[in-house]
């Protein structure tokens, strides 16, 4: 598997991007026996990225440091867990040494899949440094053990329709003709808490992504955009609806919460009224009202240089 997110590589060191994702549509279909939920979701990677530097050393063990002092750099970090899982798989009990630096740019516990993306990047980066001992299927399998979102970040697809718990993927075209304005209010939302508080009713409208999946047009039908998890997160945090409304007031064609929240994104088709959109003004307005975490993002489109 060739990763397009590799920024640099040498025999012992690799630097790679770990992109954020948004969910353009998320239907929760049913609760499973194991507590997880079956989903149908349309996920898109963005050019908002964390950056990981992974280096092999002679000193056994995993050492992790992180630019975000609020994020644990120990065994709780998904980066650490991904490295440990990989080394156990290829090495037996860890005998190799790995140094990792995580530059954290994606807001944490924000519905943007940051931790999952970091984990996916570590699995791919280590596999590359080790001379690709594991197949793509094996990496996807390891990813699944770390989290439902991780397989999407192990795969090199820019955008997918995903089913199962989010791990059965069908690639679709990347939405390169749109700008996404993201706003995060700065508080953490626990994905588990959101799913635990979701009350599924048969009356919920189910959005069928299957016909869209076959068209592969890179076009985003706005009436398809929906997130079943909004009702849980919005009921607890009134800021979500306010952020959506503000994005619409600024001219977004549609605004939606991503994943379990609390990040909200507005969709701005590039071809429509481009002169009227002054993204600096939009970002300024959002920052004044909701805090400093506003991002103007584009869909990832495989255009980054490969190693
Ligand atoms: C909501 C999404 O962001 C949509 O892309 C993802 O499904 C979340 O994926 P993730 O963060 O990788 O989730 P995990 O770390 O595997 O799971 C966290 C918790 O979320 C719940 N969870 C997650 C995914 C899923 N399909 N069903 C669930 O019920 C489970 O309670 C789980 O204990
Ligand atoms: N490398 C990491 N980056 C971010 N969070 C991490 C990382 N490692 C562990 N975590 C923990 O994982 C939890 C989820 O963080 P993350 O940023 O991945 O959430 P999220 O964007 O809501 O994920 P998703 O959209 O997949 O539900 C947080 O409680 C955080 O402390």
Q: What this model shows, in words?
A:
It is a single chain. This protein has about 300 residues and is an alpha+beta fold. It has two domains: about 5-170, Ribosomal Protein S5, domain 2; about 180-300, 2-Layer Sandwich (Alpha-Beta Plaits). Helix content is about 30%, strand content about 30%. It contains nine helices and twelve strands. The strands form two sheets. Strands 1, 2, 3, 4, 5, 6, 7 and 9 form an eight-stranded mixed beta sheet that branches. Strands 10-11-8-12 form a four-stranded antiparallel beta sheet. Strand 10 (about 255) and strand 11 form a beta hairpin. The protein is globular and about 55 Å long. About 45% of the residues are buried. The model is unreliable at about 305 (pLDDT under 50). It binds 4-diphosphocytidyl-2-C-methyl-D-erythritol and adenosine-5'-triphosphate. Keywords: ATP-binding, Isoprene biosynthesis, Kinase, Nucleotide-binding, Transferase. It comes from Desulfomarina profundi.
Short description:
By secondary structure, the chain is an alpha+beta fold. It is built from nine helices and twelve strands. Adenosine-5'-triphosphate (ATP) binds next to α1 and α2.
Q: What are its keywords?
A:
307 residues; alpha+beta; Ribosomal Protein S5, domain 2; Alpha-Beta Plaits; eight-stranded mixed beta sheet; four-stranded antiparallel beta sheet; 29% helix; 30% strand; globular; binds 4-diphosphocytidyl-2-C-methyl-D-erythritol; binds adenosine-5'-triphosphate; IspE; GHMP_kinase_N_dom; transferase
């Amino acid at each position: 598997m060739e990763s397009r997110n590799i920024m640099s590589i040498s025999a012992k060191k690799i630097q790679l991007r770990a992109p954020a994702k948004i969910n353009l549509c998320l239907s929760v279909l049913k609760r499973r026996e194991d507590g997880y939920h079956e989903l149908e979701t349309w996920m898109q990677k963005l050019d908002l990225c964390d950056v990981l530097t992974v280096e092999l050393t002679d000193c056994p063990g995993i050492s992790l440091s992180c630019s975000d002092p609020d994020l644990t750099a120990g065994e709780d970090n998904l980066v650490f867990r991904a490295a440990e899982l990989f080394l156990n798989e290829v090495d037996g009990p860890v005998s190799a040494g790995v140094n990792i630096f995580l530059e954290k740019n994606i807001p944490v516990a924000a519905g943007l899949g940051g931790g999952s993306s970091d984990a996916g990047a570590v699995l791919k980066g280590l596999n590359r440094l080790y001379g690709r001992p594991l197949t793509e299927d094996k990496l996807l399998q390891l990813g699944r053990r770390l989290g439902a979102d991780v397989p999407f970040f192990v795969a090199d697809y820019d955008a997918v329709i995903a089913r199962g718990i989010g791990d059965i993927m069908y690639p679709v075209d990347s939405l390169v003709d749109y700008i996404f304005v993201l706003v995060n209010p700065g508080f953490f939302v626990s994905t588990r808490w959101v799913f635990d508080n979701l009350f599924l009713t048969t009356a919920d409208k189910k959005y069928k992504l299957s016909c869209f999946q076959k068209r592969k047009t890179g076009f985003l039908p706005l009436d398809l955009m929906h997130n079943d998890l909004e009702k849980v997160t919005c009921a607890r945090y009134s800021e979500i609806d306010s952020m959506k409304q503000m994005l619409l007031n600024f001219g977004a064609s549609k605004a939606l919460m991503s994943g379990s929240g609390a990040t909200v994104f507005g969709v701005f088709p590039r071809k429509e009224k481009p002169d009227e959109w002054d993204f600096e003004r939009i970002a300024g307005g959002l920052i004044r009202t909701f805090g400093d975490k506003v991002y103007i993002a584009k869909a990832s489109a495989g255009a980054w240089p490969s190693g």
